[in-house]
């Protein structure tokens, strides 16, 4: 959603906007917004503290692999359970 943490910090520091209003506009909880802001402020030199598109692709691929492994294990468990009865 945000291309850089600086943009988020600049937007949230606008005097006309409160954090509650910003969180509501983004459709997230105020706690989530506060965490994002703390994370962005903790790494002032980092241009982007959020996941990069490459990282998101890698994570989605890993999630898909893990889901396939989980499904295989479920099937194996069901097979063993029916075979042993």
Distance between the first and last residues' Cα:
52 Å
Count of helical stretches: 4
What general form does the structure show? elongated
Strand % is: under 5%
Largest sheet, in brief, is: none
Structural class: mainly alpha
Helix content: over 70%
- Average per-residue pLDDT, rounded, comes to 79
Q: What are the secondary-structure elements, in order, as H or E? A: HHHH
* Integer count of domains: 2
Low-confidence parts: none
* DSSP E strands, number: 0
> Rg to the nearest angstrom?
21 Å
Outline:
The chain is mainly α. It has helices spanning 5-12, 19-26, 30-42, 53-83.
Structural description of this entry:
It is a single chain. This protein is mainly alpha-helical. It has two domains: 1-50, no CATH class; 52-85. The protein is built from four helices and no strands. The longest helix has 31 residues, at 53-83. The protein is elongated. The model has no long low-confidence stretch (mean pLDDT 79).
């Amino acid at each position: 959603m945000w291309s850089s943490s600086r943009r988020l910090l600049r937007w949230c520091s606008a005097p006309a906007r409160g954090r509650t209003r910003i969180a509501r506009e983004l459709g997230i909880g105020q706690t989530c917004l506060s965490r994002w802001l703390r994370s962005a402020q903790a790494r002032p030199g980092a241009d982007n503290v959020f996941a990069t598109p490459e990282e998101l692709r890698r994570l989605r691929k890993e999630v898909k692999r893990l889901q396939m492994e989980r499904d295989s294990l479920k099937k194996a468990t069901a097979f063993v359970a029916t075979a042993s009865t």
